[in-house]
Every structure is written in C-alpha cells, then in structure tokens.
Write a structure and sequence with these properties.
The structure is a single chain. 36% of the residues lie in helices and 22% in strands. It is α/β, with parallel strands linked by helices. The chain has 2 domains: 2-79 and 210-280, HAD superfamily/HAD-like (Rossmann fold), CATH 3.40.50; 84-206, Hypothetical Protein, Haloacid Dehalogenase-like Hydrolase, Chain: A, domain 2. The strands form 2 sheets. It has an 8-stranded mixed beta sheet with strand order 5-4-3-2-1-12-13-14. The chain has a 6-stranded mixed beta sheet with strand order 8-7-6-9-11-10. Helix 1 packs parallel to helix 11.
Length: 283
C-alpha cells in the first residue's frame, strides 16, 4: 500500500489559480488501486470545504498542520490546539508590536476590523511588488478574504474568553519587515508554542504537537507496512518531509525544501503532483 501526504497551497494548488484536473484524477486513481491520498495543510478545516466540494467523493484530511483531522467516514477531530493561556501570551506580544495577525479557529478565522491594518497591508503590497502580477494576485486574494470571509471582532482575546467552546488551531501573522519577522520568531517561540514560516512573509504559531511530522507518525501507525510519500513546497512541510519514506518537492518549492527531498517534480501550477503520482505510483 502507498500513502501520499500532500500539502495544498503552493503544492496541490497554486494560490489564486484553479486546481489542475490531473491532480484530482491522480487522487481517484490512487483510491481505485487501494492506496491513500491525504491532504495535509496549514488551512483550517473550514477553509478546506470549497476544495473538498470540487472532489468526486472524499479523502483523508489533516488540517492546521496537524492540529486536527477528518478521515473518510469519521467526524472532524480537533486536537493539539492552543490554550487560552498560550493565546494570551502570543496576542499580548503581537498587540505590543502592532502586528497584523489572525486566529484560525474551528469555525473559521477571527481578526480585528481590517481597517486597523491598512498600514500593514500597504507595506506587504510593497514587499510583494517584485513578484509582479503574481504578487498583486496574492495580496488581492488575501485582502479580499480578510475583508469578506472572516469574523471581525474588536478584541480577539476577549472573544476567546467569552467563547470557551472555541478551539484555536493556530495564530498566523503577516509581516513585511524581515528584521521584525526574525524578532517575532524569537519572541513567540517557547516550550508551549512552535513558530514557523508557512508562506512568504507569514509566520504561524501553533501547539508544538501541531506538526505535519507528528501527525504523519500518528497516521502511519495504522499502516506500518505502507510506503509513505510527502509532497510539499514550504518551511512548514519540512517536518513532513523528514518522516516519510519518499520526500518530494514541487518545482516552485523553496530551495531549502528542495535540498531536503529525494525527488523534485513539476510545479504546482502545471499539475506536478498529479503527473508525479501517475508516473511513479499508479500501477
């Protein structure tokens, strides 16, 4: 048996683009021969629903970088979340430094009114300018998402205190200044929180057990004789790539990711994932 773990943003799907049909076809082909395909993403489960509706059926999903999972035929499970105490510490630091942050919870994304972050967004747009049209598309997509698809509250920490049923999967921030990003990494990293980069100018703060590597070890304990593949592009995929049998980077992956991989395949925008699966794994 084969088990393919695949990141989404920048790997299975290029941000702002449609998913290449060959990627969906590869999932169906794997399942038809008795193998597993597992999405393993930094997205929360609520942000995966649109992608899942494009599929003909289901596949296993590990979301929030291992903070929770939804396996075929089973309910959604939230584990390895951030505690209210952890959130208080992290948010306190981010508020002091006027950081642009948002909370991934089990019901979506929470952030302060977007108007409060116009200077942050302007700086990010400048930082993305060297990327040309792609940089503009990314920022247009993100700004529209933050404006229209999120729950806006004046005080995110007060909201959490008033809603103890809410589960915080991660706290994400976007920062244009490289020196400030490095400082935030140092300030936010602790025994109770792990910090990593998930995308250009993005940092994520999670429970230390909310790791793609940890989640894969848990998943593979049920399939000890299977061959595991991991396909990714970013820093948050490194933990996954360290524990699978075959590590794979898409062509547009970070150089640091490519350096850790056994194979380099086509880019996300051209269906590198699906083409690799058909060429190497489908009987």
């Amino acid at each position: 048996m084969n088990v393919v773990f695949c990141d989404i943003d920048g790997t299975f799907q290029e941000i702002g683009h449609e998913v290449p049909q060959v990627n969906f076809d590869a999932i169906y082909a794997l399942q038809n021969q008795g193998d597993h395909f597992v999405f393993i993403s930094g997205r929360g489960y609520a942000q995966l629903e649109e992608l899942m509706t494009q599929m003909e059926g289901e596949c296993d999903v590990i979301f929030s970088n291992g903070g929770g999972h939804k396996f075929v035929g089973e309910p959604v499970v939230y584990n390895h979340c951030l505690s209210l105490k952890d959130c208080e510490k992290v948010i306190g630091i981010l508020e002091k430094r006027n950081s642009f942050y948002h909370l991934h919870i089990n019901e979506g994304i929470v952030l302060k009114p977007i108007e409060q972050y116009q200077s942050n967004i302007k700086a990010l747009r400048e930082k993305f300018k060297p990327m040309g049209d792609l940089g503009k598309q990314i920022m247009d997509f993100k700004e529209d998402f933050f404006e229209t698809q999120c729950l806006h509250v004046e005080d995110p920490l007060a909201y959490l205190a008033e809603h103890p049923e809410v589960k915080v999967m991660k706290i994400e921030l976007m920062e244009a200044d490289d020196a400030e990003t490095a400082m935030l990494r140092e300030l936010l990293n602790s025994d109770a929180t792990n910090v990593f980069s998930s995308f250009t100018h993005c940092l994520e703060v999670v429970n230390p057990k909310s790791s793609k590597g940890y989640a894969i070890k848990e998943f593979m304990s049920d399939f000890p004789d299977a061959i595991s593949y991991g396909i990714g592009d970013g820093e948050n995929d490194l933990a996954m790539l360290e524990v699978v049998d075959v590590s794979v980077a898409v062509g547009n992956a970070l150089d640091s990711v490519k350096a850790q991989c056994d194979r380099i395949i086509g880019e996300s925008a051209t269906g590198g994932v699906g083409n690799f699966i058909f060429a190497e794994i489908i009987n």
